C-alpha cells in the first residue's frame, strides 16, 4: 500500500513521517512514536481511552487516521503535563483519589483540560457532559467530577 508523507507537531515537537493511509492515529502514536498514554480500549470510538487533543480539541485517536494529523498540533498527556491547568487537575485528582486502575485517566484529564480551558468556571453538569465520552469502570465518576469541580473553582 502506498504511504503518505505527513508533518505535524506532537507535544511541541515537529514530526515527519510516512504512513499508510489506513493507519489510525492511535496505532501510529503508540507503536511508531512510543507515546503510550492514549490507551487501546474499544478501538471503535466508544470508550474515550484513546483521547488526544488535536488543535486543542479532544478527538478519539482510534477514529482519526494518522494522515489526518498532517499539519495539525497533537497533544497527549505526555505533552499536556507541561500545562499548568493540567498539573492542577492532576493534583486534585490525586487528592480526591479520583482514579483506581487509571486506564481512563489520560483521556479524562485531557477532556477536563479542554473543558476548563474553554470554560474555567464550569459547573457540575457541564463537567459531567464534558467527560460523558470517557468511560470509567472503577470510580463511579463522582470523585472525578469532584476533582474537576475543585480545580474549576480555584
Ligand atoms: S479506544 Fe478509541 S474510543 Fe475506545
Ligand atoms: S480508574 Fe479504572 S477505568 Fe477509570
What's the gist of this structure?
The chain has 154 residues and is an alpha+beta fold. It has six helices and five strands, in the order ββαβββααααα. Helix 3 packs across helix 4 and helix 3 packs across helix 6.
Poorly predicted parts = none
**CATH homologous superfamily caption of the largest domain:** Beta-grasp domain
How is the CATH topology of the largest domain named?
Ubiquitin-like (UB roll)
Q: Helical residue percent? A: 25-40%
Distance between the termini: 51 Å
Beta-strand content bin: 15-25%
Q: What count of domains describes the coordinates? A: 2
- Number of strand segments: 5
Q: Mean pLDDT, as a whole number? A: 97
H/E series = EEHEEEHHHHH
What do these coordinates show?
The protein is α+β, with helices and mostly antiparallel strands. It has 2 domains: 4-79, Ubiquitin-like (UB roll) (Roll), CATH 3.10.20; 83-153, [2Fe-2S]-binding domain (DNA polymerase, domain 1). Helix content is 36%, strand content 16%. It is built from 6 helices and 5 strands; from the N terminus they run ββαβββααααα. The chain has a 5-stranded mixed sheet with strand order 2-1-5-3-4. α3 packs across α4 and α3 (84-95) packs across α6 (142-153). The chain is elongated and about 50 Å long. The chain starts with a strand and ends with a helix. The mean pLDDT is 97. Bound molecules: FE2/S2 (inorganic) cluster (2 copies).
Amino acid at each position: 500500500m502506498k504511504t503518505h508523507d505527513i508533518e505535524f507537531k506532537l507535544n511541541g515537537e515537529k514530526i515527519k513521517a510516512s504512513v499508510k493511509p489506513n493507519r489510525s492515529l492511535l496505532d501510529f502514536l503508540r507503536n511508531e512514536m512510543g507515546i503510550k498514554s492514549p490507551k487501546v480500549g474499544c478501538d471503535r470510538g466508544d470508550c474515550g481511552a484513546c483521547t488526544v487533543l488535536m488543535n486543542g480539541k479532544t478527538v478519539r485517536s482510534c477514529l482519526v487516521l494518522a494522515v489526518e494529523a498532517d499539519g495539525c498540533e497533537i497533544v497527549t498527556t505526555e505533552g499536556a503535563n507541561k500545562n499548568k491547568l493540567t498539573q492542577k487537575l492532576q493534583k486534585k485528582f490525586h487528592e480526591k483519589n479520583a482514579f483506581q486502575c487509571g486506564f481512563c485517566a489520560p483521556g479524562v484529564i485531557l477532556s477536563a483540560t479542554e473543558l476548563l480551558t474553554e470554560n474555567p468556571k464550569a459547573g457540575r453538569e457541564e463537567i459531567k457532559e464534558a467527560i460523558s465520552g470517557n468511560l470509567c469502570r472503577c470510580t463511579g465518576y463522582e470523585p472525578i467530577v469532584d476533582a474537576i469541580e475543585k480545580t474549576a473553582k480555584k
